[in-house]
């Protein structure tokens, strides 16, 4: 059991290194404009440019530049924005992480619970009208752009139907700290959670249904029937349980990807100052140091999240443990 | 009479119309008896026993006829009632032990699950029973084996675990569907010994499905030979092996290598292949492959005729 | 098949965009704040003086529901939203199909090379794909966009302008390469070890010929199944990037940019943002349904899956 974990850790470190190199190359070595000019922002003064050149080591070889960048982002954390003069970038990124996590965690709870219910219900009643309806809804959920769905939600809950009893509780857009105002935290996040979850309920519901139906064809399901177990128990304890292995793998990838940036669109639409919104704002003002930091931190998070999922997978599937 | 099957018919609705997989099968089984069911794949031997178990879940299947277990009619019995019998009084062992166990649970968990499905027993009592069962099927270290996952056991060990599971509620009737086919020869012998021992200790009746005449000759009290969904010959072991009357049985017996004496250079094979259920010949289904075929064979299907030793063949009926 | 018909209908509608604009007599890329149109014999300004608040703002015209005459109303620059929708759809479709082609070419090439040659080539390529796979798609796209969006990119003799539609095509085309390359590599690896390829190698058939004659035909089914699903994924990605203002650049339009334009008008003229979203959802859904059907018909056991994000 130790060996696969160590191997996975090594792989994780390798991927982290690879991503950091790619980020570095994209920002510092893309042919075209002068990287110093990009970092300093539009219409930067010549002395600022000179300072950037020096502090990022643009007069030195690439590997020194790489080392300097990594040091600024992860060790000293003194990367500063030039667009918002003197703003320390790394603390801003760290501050935004809890907001993104709040959004993604809540949505994940919703989507796991509902997609299991939907996947199981559809698989249990396969080819019935209920199954078809659920799968059509799932497909609709997958096909809508998430930011657009968010705007539709805003239109309904903030404007058109805000004054009805149904949505009068919805607070204005924005984020409230859990520690200051737990109720406000919850209320502001309900609609974003639902919005983000809808897409994933669609994907997971469909994937889970297919996996359950596939495992219902397996020999061990026939054994379970021959044992005299009830259909419900066979469905939940045997078919669903074996299907969850695929589900968990997928979940890890998506959860990581969401925290690492895919939640960006939802954050932008609902005005949540998470890591995605931070990236978006930096994008609008072409604030490169900020983007470098968010991209670097977020992708590291994704890689770690993926590795954690693989560890869970090792625990969940006894076949991996010993092989 | 423990099990009495009368005129069992199983059909499947398909795009090409109704396909009859089992066509009027009848047989009886006494307590403690071992019945060998022999036939090539596709002859309907597995389907007919799955029907007895109520394990045909295909919504397009139609089951007709009568299956009486200890006087109780099983065809049309509510699923709930049937479930109470399955795994409890009637247990089944499947062909491939590699895929018959759920991969994510331990052996102990899976056997205890069956015990608890039928008996009011605490978890620990159920696990104690599992340990006994595993010892009974010759696991050298049952306590330890309980915490093993299926993939951690060899094929023979897995099949033993499956057998332990089937025996967990002391079934009166055990259906074994080619339990040794997927195993190698030395393991096979062990499993057969086990089945024999179980009949002695539990006095269970056993239906042993196989395509291997050699296994039948070692194990069965009575034998039933199936071809294309029908019984072509049945009788006691000695009747069938010493005096086979149906040409198909004779051909099957010709295809076992003799245990003693010179081995023939080539085993005589039965020419042709079993017919597709979609395109059964008009008369006797074995007709096209039969060396003794004559005019009546093309006209209609022969009925099973005779007493305890019976065959479905016009030649036999004529004689 | 109904799904394919719906999608083709959308494609043809978008292809007719220039015709529609000429017929309607509007320029969908020019701000026309002081335009006046005639509805039922009455002159209506495209931008109405706001009656709320201080009366300083302007509200664009709402939907007239008259084809050729601001059918869906105007946006905040007084442009005909219907005409922009058609032009935008054309861009969305062009970008997503071009990106699909690019992804398939790059992904197939990488998969073929890694799977066929194996050894060090495979290790290097596969590790590179692993890294790309683990890289969050939007972050990769944003990183690529931000360095190219301002000044474009020039590699050797090839120069791509910053407003060019090729930029989003390349970006989207690159980020999804691992999605295609990984399964293709697996298939090629299996084919590489199959008897007929082994036989060809032993007969001394040259590698490129084996790839072309024996291996490529065997993976075309998978590639075909990928097309509609990839296209659906790309449409969503394109619209998202455009919404984030790193895809199609103004004054050009795509469904994503129109939704962004409509964001400011969401509570007053919601249709500006709603209409392109519905267009995206319908197109993507049609592509997904068609793709699922295609997969079930051609390659039912494959695990080609709808994307995540």
Automatic annotation (TrEMBL), chain A:
InterPro entries: BPD_transp_1_N, MetI-like, MetI-like_sf. It is a multi-pass membrane protein. This is Peptide ABC transporter permease. It is found in: Cell membrane. Residues 97-313 form the ABC transmembrane type-1 domain. Keywords: Cell membrane, Membrane, Transmembrane, Transmembrane helix, Transport. SUPFAM superfamilies: MetI-like. The keyword Cell membrane applies. GO terms for cellular component: plasma membrane. Belongs to the binding-protein-dependent transport system permease family.
From TrEMBL, chain B:
It is a peripheral membrane protein. Gene3D superfamilies: P-loop containing nucleotide triphosphate hydrolases. Signal peptide: none annotated. One of its GO terms (cellular component) is plasma membrane. It is found in: Cell inner membrane. GO terms for molecular function: ATP binding; ATP hydrolysis activity. Keywords: ATP-binding, Cell membrane, Membrane, Nucleotide-binding, Transport. Residues 5-253 form the ABC transporter domain. InterPro entries: AAA+_ATPase, ABC_Ni/Peptide_Import, ABC_transporter-like_ATP-bd, ABC_transporter-like_CS, Oligopep_ABC_C, P-loop_NTPase. One of its GO terms (biological process) is peptide transport. Belongs to the ABC transporter superfamily. This is ABC transporter ATP-binding protein.
């Amino acid at each position: 059991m130790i060996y696969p974990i160590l191997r996975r850790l090594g792989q994780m470190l390798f991927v982290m290194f690879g991503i950091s190199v790619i980020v570095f190359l994209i920002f510092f070595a893309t042919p075209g404009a002068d990287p110093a000019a990009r970092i300093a922002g539009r219409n930067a003064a010549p002395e600022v440019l000179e300072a950037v050149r020096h502090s990022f080591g643009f007069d030195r070889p690439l590997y020194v530049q790489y080392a300097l960048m990594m040091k600024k982002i992860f060790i000293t954390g003194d990367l500063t924005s030039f667009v918002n003069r003197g703003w320390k970038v790394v603390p801003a990124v760290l501050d935004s992480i809890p907001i993104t996590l709040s959004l993604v965690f809540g949505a994940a709870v919703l989507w796991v619970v509902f997609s299991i219910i939907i996947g199981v219900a559809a698989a249990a009643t396969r080819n019935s009208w209920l199954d078809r309806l659920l799968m059509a809804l799932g497909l609709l959920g997958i096909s809508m752009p998430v930011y657009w769905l968010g705007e539709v939600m805003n239109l309904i809950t903030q404007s058109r139907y805000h004054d009805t009893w149904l949505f009068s509780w919805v607070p204005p857009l924005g984020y409230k700290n859990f520690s200051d105002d737990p109720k406000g935290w919850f209320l502001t996040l309900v609609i974003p959670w639902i919005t983000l979850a809808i897409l994933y309920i669609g994907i997971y519901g469909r994937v889970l249904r297919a996996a359950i139906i596939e495992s219902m064809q397996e020999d061990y399901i026939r054994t379970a029937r021959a044992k005299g177990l009830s259909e419900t128990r066979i469905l939940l304890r045997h078919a669903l349980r074996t299907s969850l292995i695929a589900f968990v793998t997928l979940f890890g990838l998506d959860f990581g990807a969401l925290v690492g940036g895919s939640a960006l669109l939802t954050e932008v639409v609902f005005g949540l100052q998470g890591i995605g919104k931070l990236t978006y704002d930096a994008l609008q003002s072409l604030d490169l140091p900020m983007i470098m930091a968010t991209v670097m931190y977020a992708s590291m998070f994704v890689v770690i999240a993926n590795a954690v999922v693989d560890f869970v997978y090792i625990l969940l599937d006894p076949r991996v443990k010993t092989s | 009479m423990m099990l009495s099957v009368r005129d069992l018919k199983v059909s499947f609705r398909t795009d090409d119309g109704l396909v009859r997989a089992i066509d009027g099968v009848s047989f009886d089984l006494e307590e403690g008896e071992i019945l060998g069911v022999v036939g090539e794949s596709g002859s309907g031997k597995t389907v007919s026993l799955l029907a007895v178990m109520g394990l045909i879940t295909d919504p397009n299947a139609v089951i007709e006829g009568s299956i009486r277990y200890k006087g109780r009619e099983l065809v049309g019995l509510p699923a709930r009632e049937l479930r109470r019998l399955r795994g409890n009084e009637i247990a089944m062992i499947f062909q491939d032990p590699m895929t018959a166990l759920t991969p994510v649970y331990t052996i102990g968990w899976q056997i205890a699950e069956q015990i608890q499905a039928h008996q009011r027993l605490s978890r620990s009592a159920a696990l104690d029973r599992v340990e006994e069962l595993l010892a009974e099927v010759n696991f050298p270290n049952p306590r330890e084996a309980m915490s093993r996952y299926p993939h951690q056991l060899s094929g023979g060990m897995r099949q033993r675990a499956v057998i332990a599971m089937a025996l967990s509620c002391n079934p009166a009737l055990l259906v074994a569907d080619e339990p040794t086919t997927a195993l190698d020869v030395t393991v096979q012998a062990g499993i057969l010994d086990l089945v024999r021992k179980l009949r002695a200790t539990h006095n269970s009746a056993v239906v042993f499905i196989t395509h291997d005449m050699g296994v039948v000759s070692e194990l069965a009290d009575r034998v039933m030979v199936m071809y294309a969904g029908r019984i072509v010959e049945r009788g006691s072991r000695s009747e069938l092996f010493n005096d086979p009357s149906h040409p198909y049985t004779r051909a099957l017996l010709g295809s076992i290598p003799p245990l003693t004496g010179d081995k023939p250079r080539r085993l005589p094979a039965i020419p042709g292949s079993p017919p597709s259920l979609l395109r059964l010949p008009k008369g006797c289904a074995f007709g096209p492959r039969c060396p003794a075929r004559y005019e009546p064979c093309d006209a209609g299907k022969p009925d099973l005729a005779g007493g305890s030793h019976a065959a479905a063949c016009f030649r036999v009926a004529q004689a | 098949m109904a799904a394919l018909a719906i999608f083709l209908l959308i494609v043809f509608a978008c292809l007719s965009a220039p015709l529609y604009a000429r017929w309607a007599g509007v320029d969908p890329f020019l701000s026309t704040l002081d335009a006046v149109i005639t509805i039922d014999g009455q002159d209506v300004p495209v931008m109405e003086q706001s009656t709320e608040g201080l009366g300083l703002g302007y509200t664009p015209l709402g939907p007239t529901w008259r084809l050729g005459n601001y059918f869906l109303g105007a946006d905040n620059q007084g442009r005909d939203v219907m005409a922009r929708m058609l032009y935008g759809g054309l861009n969305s479709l062009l970008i997503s199909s071009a990106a699909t082609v690019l992804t398939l070419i790059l992904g197939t090439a990488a998969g073929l090379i890694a799977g066929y040659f194996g050894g060090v080539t495979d290790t290097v390529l596969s590790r590179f794909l692993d890294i790309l796979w683990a890289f969050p798609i939007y972050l990769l796209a944003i990183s690529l966009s931000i360095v190219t969006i301002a000044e474009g990119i020039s590699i050797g003799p090839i120069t791509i302008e910053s407003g060019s539609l090729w930029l989003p095509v390349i970006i989207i085309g690159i980020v999804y390469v691992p999605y295609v390359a990984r399964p293709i590599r697996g298939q090629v690896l299996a084919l590489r070890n199959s008897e007929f390829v082994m036989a060809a190698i032993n007969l001394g058939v040259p590698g490129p010929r084996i790839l072309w004659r024996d291996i490529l035909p065997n993976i075309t089914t998978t590639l075909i199944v990928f097309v509609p699903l990839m296209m659906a994924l790309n449409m969503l990605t394109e619209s998202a990037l455009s919404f984030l203002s790193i895809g199609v650049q103004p004054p050009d339009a795509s469904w994503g940019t129109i939704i962004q334009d409509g964001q400011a008008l969401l509570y007053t003229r919601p249709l500006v943002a709603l209409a392109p979203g519905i267009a995206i959802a319908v197109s993507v859904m049609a592509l997904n349904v068609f793709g699922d059907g295609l997969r079930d018909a051609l390659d039912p056991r494959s695990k080609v899956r709808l994307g995540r994000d």
